[in-house]
Write a structure and sequence with these properties.
This protein has 340 residues and is an alpha+beta fold. 64% of the residues lie in helices and 11% in strands. The relative contact order is 0.07.
Length: 340
Amino acid sequence: MNDKWFRLIGIPLVAALVYVGFDGLPSVLDSRLLSAYAFGLLITTVMWEGNRAIFLYMRRAYPRYDQTGRRLGFQTIASLVFTVAATLLLNQLHQLLLQVPLPPLGDGSNYLITFLLQLVPTFMITSTYESVFFFGEWKKNLRRSDALARASIQGQLEALQRQLDPHFLFNSLNTLTALIEPENRAAQQFIEQLSDVYRYVLLSRDRPKVPLAEELKFVEAYVALNKTRFGDEIQVVTEGLATALLSRPSVAPLSVQMLIENALKHNIISARSPLRLRLHTDGSYVSVTNNVQIRATLPQSTKVGLQNIIERYRLLSELPVRVVREDGLFTVHLPLLDAY
């Protein structure tokens, strides 16, 4: 947080305002006034820097929008506890330096007044930082919405350039299904899965995010199509997805499928070297892991790859896409988005 000048100007100003607010305008400039203001400046500095540290820590601990209530609750409690502790410490320091406590500790009413006095800079500091933060988040979300809108329009234009009439394709698939012998159940099932895949692509292409459950159902159909071709040369396991679905998270459409498509495109797939795919979640991310067995020659790229996914999530989430390659495994962690 680049607030250097804000602190250099704000701390002396708040100290002066608090002094004038409780003691009035000084009639004469003497050593007693300077001493009182100097100690008030120390109090304001301690309260400012302490509450600033609490604010920054809570921002790192609870960064998401849906955690705002929890963050503000813990932040308020932490600020109150810090203000009580700082008041006790500053009282002892004042007694040590000037031989008199701010109020006698046994005088509950005066001590309460002193504590409430310390809450003034605390309230001013936290209110200012929260206001600046929310205004910054508002501008960031506005820019993010504009970027998503531009990306959506661009995607629609590109789709218009290459799309077939969906009704024509679905009608053709239904006609093809009718031409297949009833006994050939495998062929009919393959066409049904292909129809499901194409239908999902059409329905999700204009949405910034989709429920994780829908994406996983689509992935299941996509994997089934490829297993028709590769059989047991593709092995897929899932872990923890049922628990993750209870909170109804969402993801960018086609993002999980793209990771599987990239694994199929870039790795050797054979009976001796099967491709092992693992879909799993740790609560904040849904992840796809595959064993690395890079092909010697790669097919021509469709320019829809990992960088595309990273850029899309940069607009949708404050959490970054994490890419890890170690121990012969390649893993991409996609942040789970808010409930759809």
